[in-house]
Amino acid sequence: MLMRFDPFRGLDRLAQVAATGFRSSVMPMDAYRHGDEFVIHVDLPGVDPASIDVIVDQNVLTVSARRSWTPGDGDEVIASERPQGSFTRQLFLGDGLDADGVTASYEHGVLIVTLPVSEKVAPHRVEVRMGGEREAIGAGASPD
Fold it and tell me: What domains are there in the chain, each with its CATH number?
């Protein structure tokens, strides 16, 4: 399971709307499950791939990146709407994901992070035994 929590996200959005007059998520993402893995797509257009960091620390996945543009000498800036600077996004990972098997790639401005589901918690079939086999009954459960 993949969980998302950012206690300051609302404040970041409010500050962005106040500063720029429009509302936009700096690191928009899609997350979905595909078979035995979770896949996350994070939009990072114009970001130098060398500035991207993907860190897994216990059950937190942190993605950080930097985008910068400096006008050249003699350039007259007419509009400057693209967010610049350092950006960070954190996702809380459930216990069912294999944090050691995380992979990441960057192509066409999209960071793709893949998190395999842990084999320990992958769906599996539980054998149903016939009534005479007591070890199949959980502690404190009644066979009736």
Answer: 1-7+28-69+83-120 (2.60.40.790)
